[in-house]
Design a protein that fits this description.
Layout lengths: L12 E2 L10 E5 L7 E5 L27 E6 L7 H14 L4 E5 L7 H5 L9 H5 L5 H4 L1 E2 L6 E5 L13 H12 L18 E5 L6 H7 L4 E6 L3 H16 L4 E9 L1 H5 L6 H8 L3 E6 L3 H8 L11 H14 L24
Parallel strand pairs: 4-8, 4-9, 5-7, 5-8, 9-10, 10-11
Antiparallel strand pairs: 1-3, 2-3, 6-7
Helix pairs in contact: 1-11
Length: 345
């Protein structure tokens, strides 16, 4: 071994040292005679690159608030994606391990069963439960893909509700779901339990059906699209929800197209958030796969590989669990990052 009286740094030369070369250092003689040695450090090995997700998918989200949480999905304007959002967020919550009951409160024009592919399994509805023709657990339709997700329809297509059906009847129904499984309703079975989430798919408009759907809810998810007609209706619905005592209102902006936003042909998510003044739960991009999944009765979040819209729904469900929100930023700030450029967290 060579002997030196001072330490060596990479790239320095010496002729004598009490120094042991690291295993990654190679020696090269700078002359035919081994009097001067030059240290050439090896190229350090880089750690393997690991993909980073926008959310911490390696853990289960922490459920916030008292359970069961009763959430109404509403908009005011029809055709903005309330039923699609209810189906996808409901199954996303079920995939995260939470017990979910989705109630289709649209009387006579129900569609939630179609989007979930359960239309052939709905034998009883809330009307039969109220008339005493069946038990509540018989009217609940359990999804075969995720057993902790159940569907409950208010009525059958083209049927009329009893005159006495209203907010009080739906509140009684929600209370019965809360008591389900603890034996207080007399019908609790070993396989049933109180749900973590009760999602109510609200009908369009602000008439009696809307009032009935929002009565038992303590929080709301407002669905809108970046157009002025939907925004005006959403602003009106926000005021009605606050008048009914619902203060926890979050917003989902659906059918977002970044190409039109950059071309200034569509309002950005940030513009929508500033106009309505609501916390942002998620932004869902325009996706042709939504129509395909609807026609197949196969929710978007179950697609493999996942689409951008499906991932956005999953992120919205994650934020709903933790009562979190996201911050929208201008698309022009990050033009090269694609759709998720206006995701702030």
């Amino acid at each position: 071994m060579l002997s030196l009286h001072h330490h060596l740094l990479p790239g320095t030369t010496t002729t004598n040292a009490n120094f042991q070369f690291p295993p990654t250092t190679h020696l090269r003689y700078s002359s035919p005679f081994p009097k001067t040695l030059t240290l050439i450090p090896s190229k350090p090995s880089l750690p393997p690159l690991t993909p980073k997700a926008l959310l911490q998918w390696n853990r289960k989200p922490q459920l916030s608030g008292e359970t069961p949480r009763v959430v109404v999905v509403t908009s005011g304007k029809g055709g903005v994606g309330k039923t699609t959002t209810t189906a996808n967020i409901g199954l996303s919550l079920a995939r995260l391990g939470f017990s979910v009951v989705a109630i289709d409160a649209d009387v006579g024009l129900r569609n939630l069963d179609l989007l979930l592919g359960l239309e052939n399994r709905v034998n009883y509805t809330v009307v039969e439960v109220l008339n005493g023709e069946c038990r509540l657990d018989q009217a609940l339709v359990r999804d075969k893909r995720w057993s902790n997700f159940e569907l409950l329809c208010i009525s059958k297509p083209r049927s009329k509700l009893p005159i006495g059906f209203g907010g009080k009847a739906l509140t009684w129904l929600v209370e019965a779901l809360k008591a389900r499984g603890d034996g207080t309703n007399g019908n609790g079975s070993a396989g049933s339990r109180s749900p973590d989430f009760i999602l109510i798919d609200c009908p369009a408009g602000i008439d009696a059906g809307f009032i009935t759907a929002i009565t038992p809810a303590n929080e709301a998810v407002l669905i809108t699209t970046p157009d002025i007609t939907a925004l005006r209706d959403a602003d009106r619905v926000t005021g009605l929800l606050e008048c009914d005592g619902i203060r926890d209102i979050k917003m989902i902006v659906n059918r977002v197209r970044t190409d039109m936003i950059k071309g200034e042909d569509m309002m950005s998510v940030l513009d929508v958030q500033e106009m309505l003044g609501l916390p942002l739960l998620g932004a869902i991009p325009e996706d042709s796969e939504v129509i395909r999944s609807t026609n197949r009765g196969y929710p978007l979040v179950l697609n493999k590989p996942p689409t951008l819209a499906g991932l956005a729904f999953e992120q919205a469900a994650w934020r709903l669990v933790e009562q979190d929100s996201m911050q929208a930023v201008m698309v022009e700030e990050e033009p090269k990052r694609g759709f998720f450029s206006f995701f702030g967290g």
